[in-house]
Amino acid sequence: MVHSVNNERAWDEQIILALDYQDKAEVIECLNKLDGQVRYVKVGMELCYAEGPGIVAYLKEQGLQVFVDLKVHDIPNTAKGAMMSLAKHGADMVNLHVAGGVAMMEAAREGLEQGTPAGEESPLLIGVTMLTSTSQQTMNEQILITGSMEETVATYARLAKKAGMDGVVASPLEVPAIKQVAGSTFITVTPGIRTLGSSKGDQTRITTPEKAFERGADYIVIGRSITQAPNPAEAWANMITILKEGK
Which residues are catalytic? Predict the structure, then answer.
């Protein structure tokens, strides 16, 4: 299923702002600049390693949904334990690397369910396919995976679904292929998002928010295009306006 960008959707529930900061003070400054417009945020390695899991609790107290992006990749027992720990902190979404294999993903799912407090809903468990900084050439020549990027990501999506994942992280460019092999309800979370005129940075497989949703993305993750804009609140509002108008 490919979403239309011309209907009335709760865009702020599907756009995840990457809080790529060194400490809580920077996070607070960013959120203040955005003046309450953001509803879903991502805590990655940089912030989580600096502040610890308490940053998740703080963000939840602010009424935000939180994607904890730590990309777990380890032996099944360790992945299970990691997810049991993560489940206790109130995250709405967590992830791991599909490359860890089906046994690891199944163990992680079990740990997540066991660690979720009674009466609460388990976080969404999402499998990372290929990082959006990875090019076709890098995948073939350095990681030594043959074939096309689309074929590889689709294969990873099949494995993730088999292992009981709720969805995968992938470039927006591969979303149609993922939906084809895993079904329209299989969640796609897409980083590598840049507003028009923004720098690519270290990403290689990128697109704009509107193009990502047109290709069927369920969630997009955007960071520097907003957080490094001269006026983040204005940049966010302009993005939402473009999505609503279907430009």
Answer: 71
